[in-house]
Amino acid sequence: MAERRVKVSTEVGIQARPATVFVETAASSPGEVTIAKTGEDGAHDAKSILQVLVLDVRPGDEIVLTGDDEDVLDRLVALVTDAEHAGSDGGKDLADIDER
Fold this sequence. Notes:
Blueprint: E1 2-7, H1 16-27, E2 33-37, E3 44-45, H2 49-55, E4 62-67, H3 70-80, H4 83-87, H5 94-98
Antiparallel strand pairs: 1-4, 2-3, 2-4
């Protein structure tokens, strides 16, 4: 199982509409994908909107993503980091989504 540790650098973190895009991206993986905040117990299902929202991920939080599909993990990292990385592959930027 692969792991990515990343500091969330988007303006909105993973809240409301941005969480929907995050969960949809995680759901594109055929296997399990989890998300956890560094220093907190327990991983949450990254494919569940409720479990992602319960984490209350804010800008500056460090998260740990795990799963078997490294491409999906890389896309999730791009979603929660700055717009330069998120837009480089034609993906959606979470900050842009939240402003709609």
